[in-house]
Structure formats: structure tokens, C-alpha cells
Target: Polyisoprenoid-binding protein YceI
Amino acid sequence: MTAVRTLLCCLLGLAAGAARAEPPVTALPPAQAAPRHVMELDTARSRLGFEIRTRLGQRIEGVFPRFEGRIDVLADGRHQVHLRMFTGYVEIPGKDRYTGWMRGEEFFDAGRYPVVEFDSVPYDPQLVEKGGGIHGRLILRGVSHPETLQVEPASCPRAGYDCDVVSRGTVQRGRYGMDSWQLALSDRVTFVLRARLNEALKP
Model:
């Protein structure tokens, strides 16, 4: 009988130790509900580029000839924007040497990081009419930081269809490992989006 009690005590002690060793169960965050509608960017009529200035004040303008984007219309009526820019196609029009440098490892490093992504938090669609900031997260060269797109007030009643929705977002390139040429170029890079939407909503 004594042996049985001893065995039971050992087993209970092992069970208690295992319970203490197990990490607490953490609930997973709720899954994002599927959007009610999806509005695709009309990439033929939209323009996505960037600007950077030299230390002497000269403005260098680049473009992303290949990009994609969409706006999710959520069940509660808010919108959420998603953008993808493909760095292997980035160019400085008319300046082949600058284009090669922008695609190279000292800037966008297209070989290792072929996509720049921006995903916003949900926002009120009236922001597009009045102007304001759309907050989100930028992933550039594998580094992620919160950033803000500043949207200009709409210039027509059907912004995105009859006129561009213009937004700008300025980032510090050094935060993303793009810290070469600091003596020649400003640390600030401004992304500029002039967006048009396809007419049809996708269910």
C-alpha cells in the first residue's frame, strides 16, 4: 500500500511539473472578415512613382511601370487599401544609369526584394473626398514600419473614376537600409500615387 501511495505521489508531481512547463494558451486574433466588395486599381490609367531630391535641391523622379492595387470594401462600410510595387521594373525615365542604381542593392535591391507592399488599416471612405491621412504598414527591403499616405481632397464628385485620387507618402530611406549616398541624396523618399479605379465592383 505504501508503494502504491508513493507511486501516486510521483505521478502527481510529474503532472504538476508538466503543467507548469506548458506555456499559457493564447487566443489567436480574430480572422479578418472577407470584404463585401473589391475595387481594383485601373493600372492603365493610374500612375505610381517616387521622388527624391539631391542635396543641391535637384528633384529625381522615378516610376513603377508595374504595380497592382485594390481597395477592399468591408462589411461595416470602411475601406482598406493594398498596394504592391515591383522593383525589378522601376525606372528613372531617360536616365539608364540612375535606373540601374535604383534597382541595385544600394537602393531597392530588386534581386532580393522584388516587391514593395503597403497595407492600410481600415478607414472612412469620406476621407477620400475631404483629404487626410491613411495609416498603414509599409514593407520595403524586408523591413516593416508604420507609414501614412496623405490624400489630397477630391477634385471631382466621383474621385477615382472621373479624376485621380492623389496621395503621397514620405519615408526615411535609412530606416529601410537604403542608407547609401547620404552625402549626395536626401534621406526622404516620397511615393506618389495617382489612382483610378475600374468601374465594376467585384463581389
